[in-house]
């Protein structure tokens, strides 16, 4: 008997709790000794401790690689003077030979059109 | 696990379920999960009875702690991120008791549960431990990790409030008391 219970004063509460207790016991799952052996299906899957550390190191390595690649791209080009000259500039301007031809540039662009299509300005 | 411990756990199983049920606010499936995880802790020797308190007090403390862990997990699941993850994994949980469970519970038990739910958590815990589990106030204080004085205060206030709530909800109870 619980020493904190007053037999007369708390009878109403004890009865109410006893009723609840009976009801809960009826609905309690049956005792199964396997619960003390089988692992719980719903046990939390915890991440291993090394995983976040490995992820952080991998991220750092990846960032370093990207940074190094950018560095290589933006580094100054090697000395051009050491390379042979592939394209030497010519002495005369481009298409100079065309200008000095038979004066075809003076010919109107519609010279090949039939006469009826040629517009004659007054 | 020692045979003696297993026998003690078996003897306490129905009451342990009742306590898990109280810790989970009457949710049967969650109470079963909590109890299962508590058994797993005991089986894998993650919790060991040192003899500082009675076996029942120690075991109920383990169940209480496991229920709190489950509650924190549930709160995470109910957060926005948790809901999104549940959508992807299809792992959704309905905390409400099923219709079948509601029918199975008789009216007085339901009324009692509702009245306990209206009490402050500490008062409800002391009430359950003292009246339902037949522990002393001192044992309840040890289990709840509070001082004996606080436990007594919760006990007296809880009794008065619970009576009022039950009398309001049930004229039969008022007549009996």
Provide a descriptive summary of the structure in words.
Chain A: The chain crosses the membrane at residues 47-68. The complex is a heterodimer of chains A (122) and B (177). Chain A is mostly helical. Chain A has a domain at 10-38. Chain A is built from 3 helices and no strands. Chain B is mainly α. Chain B folds into 2 domains: 1-97, Rna Polymerase Sigma Factor, Chain: A; 105-177, Orthogonal Bundle (Arc Repressor Mutant, subunit A). Helices cover 77% and strands 0% of the residues of chain B. Chain B is built from 10 helices and no strands. In chain B, helix 6 crosses helix 9 (148-169), helix 7 crosses helix 9 (148-169) and helix 8 crosses helix 9. Chains A and B meet through helix 1 of A and helix 1, helix 2, helix 6, helix 7 and helix 9 of B.
Defining key terms:
heterodimer; A: 122 residues; mainly alpha; elongated; B: 177 residues; 77% helix
Helix and strand topology:
The complex is a heterodimer of chains A (122) and B (177).
Chain A: H1 11-27, H2 50-74, H3 96-99
Chain B: H1 3-23, H2 28-43, H3 55-77, H4 80-89, H5 99-104, H6 107-118, H7 121-132, H8 137-144, H9 148-169, H10 171-176
Helix pairs in contact in B: 1-2, 1-3, 2-3, 3-8, 6-9, 7-8, 7-9, 8-9
Tell me the CATH topology of the largest domain in chain B.
Rna Polymerase Sigma Factor, Chain: A
| Count of strand segments of chain B | 0
Mean pLDDT of chain B: 83
Number of helices of chain A: 3
Helical fraction of chain A equals 25-40%
User: How far is the first residue's CA from the last residue's CA of chain B?
Assistant: 46 Å
Please estimate the helix content of chain B.
over 70%
Short description:
Chain A has 122 residues and is mostly helical. Chain A has helices spanning 11-27, 50-74, 96-99.
